[in-house]
Amino acid sequence: MATTASSFMDSLFQRTLDDLIKGLRHNLIGEQLFISKSLEDIRKEIKSTDLQTKSIALEKLTYLSSIHGIDMSWAAFHAVEIMSSSRFSHKKIGYLAASLSFNESTEVLLLITNQLRKDLSSTNEFEVNLALECLSVIATIDLARDLTPELFTLLSSSKVYVRKKAIAVIFKVFEKYQDSVGVCFKRLVENLEGSDGKSMSAAVGVFCELAAKDPRAYLPLAPEFYRILVDCRNNWVLIKVLKIFASLAPLEPRLAKRIVEPICELMRKTGAKSLLFECIRTVVTSLGEYESAVRLAVSKTREFLSDDDSNLKYLGLQALTIMGPKHLWAILENKEVVIKSLSDTDSNVKLAALRLVMTMVSEDNVIEICRVLLNYSLKSDPEFCNEILSSILFTCSRNFYEIIVDFDWYVSLLGEMSRIPNCQKGEEIESQLIDICLRVEDARPELVRVGRDLVIDPALLGNPFLHGILSAAAWVSGEYVEFAKSPFELLEALLQPRTNLLPSSVRSVYIQSSFKVLVFCLHSYLLNNEAHIPSSSPEKLASGVPDTVLGDGFLEASVITAPKSIVESEHDADFSPGASNHGVSVENDGEDVIHGQTSLSVPLEKDYFTRESIIKLLDMSEMALGPLLESHEVEIQERSRNVIGLIELIKQEITGPLVKKETDDMRDEFKALNMIRLICDGFSEELGPVPVTAQERVPVPEGLTLVENLCDLDTIFADMNLLTQSSLILGTLNLGETTGGSLSDLQTKDDLEPATESTSLLSEHRKRHGLYYLPSEKSNSLYNAYPPANDSLLQQNENDHVDDLVKLTEQSLVPKKKPSHAKPRPVVVKLDEGDVPITSRKLESEENLLSGAVRDALLGNEDKSTSAKVPCGKSSSKRIEKGKQSVDVPSESNDNAADKGKADVGKGSSRRSKGRGKERKHKSGVKGGTQREGNGQRENLKSSRTSKHKTHHGAVDSVNVIPQTPVIPDFLL
Amino acid sequence: MGIRFILMVNKQGQTRLAQYYEYLTLEERRALEGEIVRKCLARTEQQCSFVEHRNYKIVYRRYASLFFLVGVDNDENELAILEFIHLLVETMDRHFGNVCELDIMFHLEKAHFMLEEMVMNGCIIETNKSNILAPIQLMDKAT
């Protein structure tokens, strides 16, 4: 009694949805508070036994959920209750709530199957409508399976209103439950053929979706689609049909030929821009070989481009982008508009124009286009500027820098990009700098020059977006310091005080690079001395000659670094032991660098690596790095300790009391030389790119079991507290980030250096837990754990080298006629496997389940209908024969078919061999038969042309469109 | 799928109607709506009505204070969707008589029914205004 009374009171004073909305709008107590108060009410009301109260509560909840994002999953059961009400006004509230809030994981779905079944079979078309609508949103596998019979019935319902909706739902059901295709497909096709426009339009919509996934299965229906294309006057439908043809036409050349004319006709006549655009798109995507059609499409596109409406302009640009690669002339004709659009007020139009410009880029114009774009990027807003940069970076690096011939140019372009104020593409530029450095040997001198310019500029250090680039620049200039014009200057740049602005990961690269530069200087200096003290040896003199080169650069640099020493070394020749030889050609210049560079051991600069300058160098490094010994960052601390350690050692050896006997001096330097030489050897090992698959080539040592689950990694990290916090994490993370190259190499170097405590600990750790390094790191584990694999790989690299060169020149020279370049394109090292992502070949062969089902359905239908219509006439029975033949053909000739499912072996593969064209067919065993057949049908074609389009029945058109295909199932005839 | 979702948002960025044709969680919806509102509402009348977002396109149009935003697959015909939006607005106009934001707020259910008549499972199935409105008028009479 009490409960009924309270529920009565509830319903009497219940707020309606309108009240709720008004309350929300007046918003007296704040929206959130109001909502939570209303929710309280709703929770109470929804439990009411009175359906009216309950459904109003649900209605309010649905509103709050869909507009204010309130969770209503808890009310799912109430929704089901209301759905089952016999009153339509309640039912619709329940259904709306269900379709807006249910999903596959909603548990109560299990309860509604019967309710849906009941409503689907209701005589009230609006109830059917509600159920269909709900099913289209929430269909699960179970629901799809259980309700297929009801849908099958609805597909031929006499009420168009219901039928068209059933058709739209069937696509969802197909997706969920493939077996329903076998049941319903035929009825779907009947709706396509039917005279009713609404059902046909819905069916076309479904086929448009289906054909987008796997067009091949729907080729047999081409005649129907063709009929619609020619007869239909509804633009919505025509657009869908055009989409279907866009995916079918590339598969069947004769079909393409057939539809060109009608499409052009549409293009000429239609006033609807949407349809016109669809025609253009269809032509440029799928009918590219029909010159006249393309010309028409291009002229229509030009109308779009010249329109003031930015929508049309945008679409015009899109159309040109699609044409791009195949019909360059179309873009060139509209070049002016395109370039103008780069400065449009609408960022989307600009973006479309940019993409279009990028499709025009080729080997011959890349320099020119990049110049134009870079100028634009300077003028445009930060966002678009970065769009430009990233598209340049992407296009130029595509397929191993395919379009780049002049790497010196590209590398300096990268340098230029880095200096653009809005540049945020540091990461990409960084990885490209390193990548080019590893792959393109000839680009290294220029890379070092660009690297130097970047490293030396103190202004760049303050921009966090550039830190990646600086890290790459520092690495490049350290690793290939032998190309540097002035190592001194470089060292000073690497150690400049503003480097404290860098993040520690980058800073440690700086320190490591300065280490390399320092070692290089010392090596050159000591080698020089060694070479010239026993100065009589003519060989050494000769080898020393080319390297005087660096003189010029050093002259400039030493003005900054050590002006005093240079003056001294120039005038006070006796000061340096090497100076006795300074008669040796100082006249050599720049060009020789390229020859001299390759071996590190060649002595460098006699006249300029003086004892004085070296000592200055050492002092400077010591000063800069000294404070870092206390750094909290282990990477920094450790690396600077390495450098300082070296400096201390060397200082003892070379400085000593200035007034020392020459002989003593020499002996000491000899010792130092040996030491430096060792380190230098460590650095001089050639680095190359490592394929992603490299790890797989490493044979798993016997007795090693690889753990698949790495969860116990945590415990290992836990007990190696100290290491994890610093070097380990730094090491691994950075390696991941910097795309293999830079830091991993440094890591290698670290291992080669006189090991400090922590490095040895680190390598210890690596040895113990080496296997945990495998999955995440691509390249470095090789260096660290399995040196033999690295060796073999390098060798292989060398072997590939020549092949690659040959391939490369073939590729780049043959397809394009290009002017002979002054410089031949340098070798770009590629790795055959691994670098290239595995292509989607597998995916192609993998059949989509749904289309498999459709194919089965078509096949099944064919059988059924042929058995019914055998006496239909000669041609059809002939065709059956032929169909059978072609089933046999592929099993002999087409090995691709092997892995296909039994059911569609015949169907699919015959179609496949079909697609490859006539030659293939003639070669195959059944030559005679098929040819005769083909001729017969060609006659058929001629005769039927005279009576073109007179009947709407599929037969004539089916012969017209694909006369020879055995693929057309007979039920269409 | 064609159409993935239809949103109506006022110029303050408040959602007035949201119909999704693929399942998204409430959080995903909220995030998506936020991103779209930020992207589209800042654009001027002169700029084009197509915005690329994630892996699909948004076609939108503004009517007075209300933005109609439709998320579609990439190969969908943009101009056809614009026409669809216009058709939707005209249909609402015919039913409500000079439709405004408030009409949609107070008759959300009806707006959903109109959409259901026009679009099913992401495909446009009805484009005739009278046909779209017929069932709704029947229902109105019945109550």
TrEMBL record, chain A:
Subcellular location: Endomembrane system; Golgi apparatus
Record key words, sorted: Golgi apparatus, Membrane, Protein transport, Repeat, Transport
Disordered as annotated region, ranges: 862-973
Boundaries of every Clathrin/coatomer adaptor adaptin-like N-terminal domain copy: 34-513
Basic residues bias (residue ranges): 909-925
GO terms (BP aspect): Golgi to vacuole transport; protein targeting to vacuole
This protein's GO CC annotations: AP-3 adaptor complex; endosome membrane; Golgi apparatus
Pfam families per UniProt: Adaptin_N
Cited function: Part of the AP-3 complex, an adaptor-related complex which seems to be clathrin-associated. The complex is associated with the Golgi region as well as more peripheral structures. It facilitates the budding of vesicles from the Golgi membrane and may be directly involved in trafficking to the vacuole. It also function in maintaining the identity of lytic vacuoles and in regulating the transition between storage and lytic vacuoles.
PANTHER family, sorted: AP-3 COMPLEX SUBUNIT DELTA-1, DELTA ADAPTIN-RELATED
Family: Belongs to the adaptor complexes large subunit family.
Subunit composition and interactions: Adaptor protein complex 3 (AP-3) is a heterotetramer.
Protein name (database record): AP-3 complex subunit delta
Organism of this sequence: Dillenia turbinata
Automatic annotation (TrEMBL), chain B:
Chief location: membrane
GO cellular component: cytoplasm; endomembrane system
Superkingdom, taxonomy of origin: Eukaryota
UniProt entry keywords in alphabetical sequence: Membrane, Protein transport, Transport
Location of the protein in the cell: Endomembrane system
Gene3D superfamilies: 3.30.450.60
Membrane-spanning segments: none
Residue ranges of domain AP complex mu/sigma subunit in the record: 3-142
GO biological process: intracellular protein transport
Pfam family, one: Clat_adaptor_s
Presence of keyword Protein transport: yes
Stored PANTHER family: ADAPTOR COMPLEXES SMALL SUBUNIT FAMILY
Family membership noted in the UniProt record: Belongs to the adaptor complexes small subunit family.
Name assigned to this protein: AP complex subunit sigma
Species name: Dillenia turbinata
